[in-house]
Amino acid sequence: MKKYLYLLIPSILLAIFVVFTILVKTIDVSYINNSYYLGFSTMNLAVNDFVKSLGWSTTFDKISDVFLYVSFLFPFGYLIIGLVQWIKGKSLKAVDKELFVMAGLYVLIAIEYLIFELVKINFSPVENKASYPSSHVFIFVTLVCSGAYLYNKYAVKGDKFSILSIIFAVIASIGMSLIRLGSGKHYLTDIIGAVLLSSFLVATYYFVNRYVIVRLNCDNN
After folding, report:
1. CA torsion 113→163→101→116, rounded to 10°?
2. Domain span at residue 104?
3. Domain count, the chain
């Protein structure tokens, strides 16, 4: 039963993302500044106008850049762990399977990033470039939430700390989403789409680790 539950959640999240993306292209579409079409235009423009009125756009933009760079510590750290295991064990078989799954996740992040750079759903309010989904939010949330899960294996012991790391990842993800929205470089739907896409990837990663990797370890034993 757990197997199907782990598989069902990522499937539902992917379906929600796809449906939401279609709605972004079809609901309340307006032609903005004789330049691009914007779905959910009434809501998006109202939120963007409010964000600009705060006068913090430049500051939030810089903060979101810092947050994104900090999130890169997760892949860098796991790369070091994998290399150490490889060197000590003198074989790739000595490297934890979870690290290979994590590497696969990073490949998916890169592929998704390239796809939405080519398939332009929305354009940024301030730049003539694709903005859906927000790459800052999408990458940050995926790296932090997946990284926090694996962090418990290498650095933290006990369920209490496991829960704390998950809470930290959720709070950090919410903070990044709000800060990136506050930068004024994205519409609200860009942020929502990024959260949905990253949730799908993290749920898929969690499924692979909780079911596939555990099953492989049991078979080997």
Report:
1. -10
2. 2-220
3. 1
